[in-house]
């Protein structure tokens, strides 16, 4: 059964665990016959919860883990001391090749630290970035790094660009994707010290198609395929994307309820509006994989829904099918 | 005539100069009888352009300046060498108290450098920030700094917070506005080195009502009144705000044109939608003043329209009426 993908799923992480995690897993198995799940967490609880659903028992196994890591805990200490936490146990499954991938909606810090300590970085990769797909008017762009590495250095950003370019090319099927550096102006001399030092590294890198700086204004219009920035900026971009979109849509909905005329119109435009909103909803786009590890680790946000968990699990298939990990390794041979 | 506000306007700066600048000035004078304009730029050109409009000639005077500074020029060298540029001449008018304020849609770099070299910083202020009003679902927030200071240090961010708080309180009439620090998590230990070092300074400052960290997601929902960040992050936020808003609205419009049903609905919701879009359009909110100078300097973006130029000029009245400069001075006595 070469083509089966086994994903270790953190059943205890996220705001709606374990309920949403289990439902997401059941849904993913229904959609994709070649995904199997290792559900990691408190055995008794998970057994009870799983009893509520109908699925092929051979395809989802419960892996006991007696501890949990909360988002308030210091990540390094938590990973060191809670060896039987769902995150640590699941990461060991990836390390020992019992699982092909790990998906978690739990503590970002613990997942990032644990992934590097337990699964380990690929040789040559110093700071694995989180790469998230974001919707644009032209399609989909990859934002890398979106929060794993704050205070990163220029050579790290160069790695983000190279890893991101390979990931985008293989996941989206776009040859030589356009790579741009987030900046506050398009001229080469603009920017902060980090951006000024990073620019020539990207410009002179033969592995990527660097198109220069990109201002944040152009990101939603699809100004580049791979958007490179350090983690603090990337996290601000990802969250503001969500915030402005959500705020504007709630304002538009409220505005449409302001008169009888627009209420009638709202009924007619509702299906089209819903479609647009869905297309511009970042949660449709799966989780953020950590790029450059010796295994696949995907982080999805704490408030993930059943659909998001399901998309995240399915997203892991792409990595296997497109042999993305092997492509990464070629970068550092 | 104590209550007349005289604004020096850079007639040569911006993508649509001098046309849009002159029309904005004429409009502002129509709306506000206590605004007079000193129109700075090429005398002959401006005389010809002004001849197209009807306005009280005593209220708008042309001040000759034979040079211009383009956005491609290195700001420091341009300000030093082009003594007769519209920006330098206008800033001298503010310095010599012939004008109460300077408004420009020209080179941001040249305005920032020139303002500090010619008008000068208030005693005690080291890095004057740009403060821009942004729309939220709850009203209006102030983003400070939005691009004047990249690589700023913690003590600079403290100044941004204090100046911003005074500005917001007086311009918006909100006592003790809520001040928050842009971060990638709400917990105190989250963030990059700059944010971690800035947090305790803001927390312990008695002059401001610090409510802690704010994630970018909450900014459009009005999570704080005064949003403090360094200039690179602030510029990314401001431009992404504009970008996501614009992209989403164009997608919604396109979506509504996709079927006959939604086309009919679009006709009915159009007025309400237009109102919402206008409320969420940052350009409605005037320009960004540089806070903490020995005079008022307001920067508006290069693609400013007639309406934006007009709003920018009217915005200068608030500074005079609310004696905001005097309030700033009290901070550093």
Question: Based on CA inertia axes, which overall geometry of chain A fits?
Answer: globular
> Count of DSSP helices of chain A?
11
Largest sheet of chain A: 6 strands, mixed
Largest interface: A-B, 64 and 64 residues
Note the quaternary state here.
homodimer
SSE order of chain A: EHEHEHHEHEEHEHEEHHEEHH
Radius of gyration of chain A: 21 Å
| Relative helix content of chain A | 40-55%
Percent range for β-strand residues of chain A: 15-25%
Distance between the termini of chain A: 30 Å
Describe this structure in words.
2 copies of one chain form a homodimer. Chain A has 333 residues and is an alpha/beta fold. The first copy, chain A, contains 11 helices and 11 strands. The first copy, chain A, has helices at residues 19-31, 43-50, 75-81, 86-95, 108-119, 154-172, 193-203, 231-256, 260-279, 306-321, 324-331, and strands at residues 5-10, 35-41, 60-64, 101-104, 131-135, 140-144, 178-183, 209-215, 226-228, 288-289, 296-299. The first copy, chain A, has a 6-stranded mixed sheet, sandwiched between helices. Chain A is globular. The model of chain A has no long low-confidence stretch (mean pLDDT 92). Chains A and B meet through helix 8 and helix 9 of A and helix 8 and helix 9 of B.
């Amino acid at each position: 059964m070469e083509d089966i993908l086994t994903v270790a799923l953190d059943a205890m992480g996220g705001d709606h665990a374990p309920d949403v995690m289990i439902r997401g897993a059941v849904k993913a198995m229904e959609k994709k016959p070649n995904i199997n799940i290792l559900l990691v967490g408190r055995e008794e609880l998970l057994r009870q919860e799983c009893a509520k659903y109908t699925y092929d028992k051979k395809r989802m196994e419960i892996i006991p883990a007696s501890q949990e890591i909360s988002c308030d805990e210091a990540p390094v200490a938590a990973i060191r001391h809670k060896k039987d936490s769902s995150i640590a146990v699941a990461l060991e499954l990836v390390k020992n090749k019992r699982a092909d991938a790990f998906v978690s909606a739990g503590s970002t810090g613990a997942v990032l630290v644990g992934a590097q300590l337990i699964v380990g970085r690929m040789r040559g990769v110093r700071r694995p970035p989180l790469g998230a797909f974001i919707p644009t008017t032209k399609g989909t762009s990859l934002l890398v790094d979106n929060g794993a590495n704050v205070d990163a250095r220029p050579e790290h950003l160069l790695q983000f660009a190279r890893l991101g370019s390979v990931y985008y090319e293989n996941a989206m099927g776009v040859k030589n994707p356009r790579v741009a550096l987030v900046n506050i102006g398009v001229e080469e001399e603009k920017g902060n010290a980090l951006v000024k030092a990073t620019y020539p590294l990207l410009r002179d890198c033969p592995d990527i198609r660097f198109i220069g700086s990109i201002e944040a204004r152009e990101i939603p219009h699809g100004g580049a395929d791979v958007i490179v920035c350090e983690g603090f900026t990337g996290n601000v971009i990802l969250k503001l994307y969500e915030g402005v979109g959500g705020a504007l849509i709630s304002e538009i909905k409220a505005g449409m309820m302001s008169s009888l005329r627009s209420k009638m119109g709202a009924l007619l435009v509702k299906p089209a509006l819903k479609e647009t909103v869905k297309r511009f909803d970042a949660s449709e786009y799966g989780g953020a994989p950590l790029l450059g590890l010796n295994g696949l680790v995907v982080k999805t946000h704490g408030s993930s829904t059943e659909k998001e968990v399901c998309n995240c699990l399915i997203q892991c298939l792409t990595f296997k099918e497109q042999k993305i990990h092997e492509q990464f390794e070629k970068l550092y041979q």
